[in-house]
Write a structure and sequence with these properties.
4-stranded antiparallel beta sheet, SAM-dependent_MTases_sf, binds S-adenosylmethionine, Alpha-Beta Plaits, EC 2.1.1.176, alpha/beta, 4 domains
Length: 482
């Protein structure tokens, strides 16, 4: 992305006088504010959107447009560079944001709104009191429009980019890298993924698997809810949805139900009564692998916002002690809100210090370590996560993950069980990390692993059961789901 040159003092004064209004006047203006704040502060769109004055209808749309822009940023930039005649590093960063907004709408919005996409984006320049930008923005966006055709194809091609439903929208020029000579590079630009991740996936997967995986990073899978089995039977809940004419489907996991239409959570049966939480099927495996019993003393080490904590409590039939620890005060609040809504009383929360995590003098029977990770198994849901991925970041995460395993192992009773889980598909923070940790902890062994690749219907993820060697066999069972 182009870097803004350091402004001279008189320009700073001029810019201060030209402060844009803080209350969004239009949806595009809201998108501009959200993207600029994300660019300059790193604050996530979802975290900042409530600070803007937006009505309930416009807010989700502004979030969707902004997140799509962030997610498809690399593809958008590739197209824009084709249409911008001046050197890209001479375009101011906020002007580039406006170009990205227009290109986002042209490339991914409905075909019949192209005229509005250009004229309304140009209007943003005036709203921001930059009338001098209008001609340039208009010219570049008309260039993007000229690249578009109304054709789609099922095949990847250097003149086509992934659009929707596994179809590629055809451009009238080959602007992406040549497929035969530079296949991974094509994938990076067309699917808007960072180079280091593309290189990893190219090494690990066949071409078909690679393409399928990249498609899964573009859109969130359908929403699933996990029913609170203490409060409700799946068959009854599904029946109540059908009576309320809400389309849902049962899945291979009895308590996980797919929601097949757009609906507010509060309009699903039993929201207030705590009959369900939103949770993807892939995320349900870790707590089940830990399999805590009623009456046990259990630790959920990285618990916020509490989705798996409540699942552990349900498996314990709300009997015993379940300590949920977190380093984030906001996430502690969320765990407490979730426990309250689900009417679960065995959960206690504890805010801990990242550097010096004192948790308890008493050991635990079972421990879940749902570690912070690169999120590569849920990229379709987390628009910004792909841009955090790097080898350096992975090393930093590995240090935290190793530390969490150390902390947990010291708090486990002699015959206790611990499960390490991530929402990543990177062996470096999954299988390989567990192997490395076991090398320095020969008293432990891994007795089961589950690795799930994401696809159009579900997230991916990883979980591993780790037990003390005296009480367990060598690896019995490695379960690979793809
Ligand atoms: C993958 S999320 C956990 C999701 C949660 N288990 C659930 O199902 O809702 C990882 C969490 O670990 C927390 N975290 C990060 N570093 C930590 C540490 N050193 N100790 C404990 N928690 C940590 C983060 O704040 C984040 O909430």
């Amino acid at each position: 992305m182009p870097q803004r040159k350091r402004p001279v003092r008189s320009q700073v004064r001029k810019q201060r006088q030209k402060q844009p209004p803080s209350i969004p006047r239009t949806i595009r203006h809201a998108v501009y504010i959200l993207i600029e704040r994300y660019r300059t502060t790193g604050q996530l769109v979802r975290d900042q959107v409530l600070e803007l004055f937006l009505n309930d209808e416009i807010r989700p749309q502004a979030v969707a447009w902004s997140e799509r822009l962030i997610l498809r940023q690399r593809t958008i930039d590739r197209v824009l560079k084709e249409c911008v005649s001046r050197p890209v590093d001479q375009v101011q960063a906020s002007l580039w944001t406006i170009l990205r907004m227009g290109a986002n709408e042209l490339l991914f919005g409905p075909a019949d709104s192209q005229h509005a996409a250009i004229s309304e984006t140009v209007e943003i320049c005036r709203l921001l009191t930059h009338p001098e930008w209008t001609g340039f923005v208009n010219g570049v966006l008309r260039g993007v429009q000229r690249l578009l055709t109304d054709q789609v194809t099922k095949e990847i091609a250097a003149n086509a980019y992934p659009f929707e439903n596994h179809e590629y929208r055809v451009l009238n020029k080959e602007i992406f890298p040549d497929l035969e000579a530079h296949f991974p590079s094509y994938m990076g630009f067309a699917f808007s993924l960072p180079e280091p991740l593309i290189r990893e996936w190219d090494r690990r997967y066949t071409r078909e698997e690679f393409i399928e995986l990249c498609w899964s990073t573009l859109e969130a899978p359908p929403m699933h809810v996990r029913l609170n089995r203490i409060a409700v039977e799946p068959a009854q809940w599904v029946e109540r949805c059908r009576e309320a004419e809400i389309a849902v489907s049962t899945t291979e996991v009895p308590e996980s139900i797919r929601i097949d239409q757009k609906v507010r959570l509060s309009n699903l049966p039993g929201f207030e009564a705590g009959e369900f939480v939103v949770q993807d099927i892939a995320a349900t495996h870790a707590a089940k692998l830990l399999n805590p019993y009623p009456g046990q003393r259990v630790l959920d080490l990285c618990a916020g916002p509490g989705t798996k904590t409540t699942q552990l409590a349900e498996l314990m039939l709300d009997r015993g002690e379940l300590l949920a620890t977190e380093v984030s005060p906001r996430r502690i609040e969320q765990i407490e809100e979730n426990a309250k809504r689900l009417q679960i009383s065995c959960i206690k929360t504890l805010l801990i210090d990242r550097e010096d995590p004192y948790i308890s003098d008493e050991p635990f029977d079972a421990i879940l370590i749902d570690a912070p990770c690169s999120n590569t198994a849920v990229l379709g849901k987390r628009a910004e996560a792909r841009w955090r991925y790097s080898i350096t970041e992975l090393h930093l995460l590995n240090d935290i993950q190793m530390q969490l395993l150390d902390t947990a192992s010291e708090l486990l009773v002699e015959d206790g069980r611990m499960v390490y889980s991530t929402c990543s598909i990177e062996p470096k923070e999954n299988e390989q990390l567990i192997s490395r940790w076991l090398e320095t902890h020969p008293e432990f062994t891994c007795s089961e692993m589950k690795s799930i690749l994401p696809n159009a219907n579900r997230d991916g993820g990883f979980c591993a059961l780790v037990e003390r060697r005296e009480n367990s066999e060598e690896i019995e069972n490695v379960d690979e789901l793809s």
